[in-house]
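Notes, p. 3: input format for complexes.
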Amino acid sequence: MNPFRYERASDVASACASAARPAAKFIAGGTNLVDLMKLQIEAPAQLVDITRLPLDRIEETADGGLRIGALVSNSAAAADMRVRRRYPLLAQAILAGASTQLRNKATTGGNMLQRTRCPYFYDTTKPCNKRVPGSGCAALEGFNRMNAVLGVSDNCIAAHPSDMAVAMTALDAVVETIAPNGSTRAIPIDELYRPPGDTPHIETVLEPGELIGSVLLPPPPAGRQIYRKVRDRASFAFALVSVAAILDLDGGRVRAARITFGGLSYEPWQPARRSMPPAPPHSKTRAATATTISRSRLPAARCAPR
Ligand code: SF4
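Output follows (306 residues plus iron/sulfur cluster):
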């Protein structure tokens, strides 16, 4: 392992200032970053430990939503009764990911910023533009069953691995950040992740030293919520594909539907959302409408080589 400096931040301002330095990184649960450091895929010169910052609360908002602090553990978020009752698909998505031990350590902010599980990203003997910009992409002609098929580029076909982010996207979450100069931003989660393009190593719109402080959930949408995940084994596996669905039914007819997919793209992939004319859930009209909207937001759809 490469030597690095360690600093335990006592307040948000100093944490952001320290993390803005070259090759510095925030660390909280460390469930992904420490693994990457052991493999020398990540080699930060400085780690800024933010675990003592007061960002570990889940709070009600005035409009009936929730603000989930960036340091709330995945286990705590999934167990919170307000989350379970009002945002059940978020609790389901969290519990569909990792193991109990990992969920106890992993944080809300870290979960959304975890790196891809593309096998070639973790294999330092293989070319990978995300790990070493300009080196190539071994996944293009390699084993890429778990990689992305939507929004990919010729430089990277990695999929985003987070289940939580899929649920957050379905729920229209907003990521609240603090920058080193003290300014704050509210970033809709569907604007957080950058498409790979020519720079797959730059994965989000966050600036150096910009800290996720919390995630804001608007009031729960009408309808039934559900999260389903297809994976190669029942426990502790990343999604081949997952879906977060919110279906608002009027008797036997669908009034509105939100569908968000995981495992398919560099970000949780959400077809353009629109209210549907009421129709039975399984009608041909419904299927045609779903196909149309699913094709309406493909940045650069391409099937990866199989
Ligand atoms: Fe690297 Fe992306 Fe190619 Fe995987 S798909 S090898 S992460 S460049």
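The longest helix spans residues 284-294.
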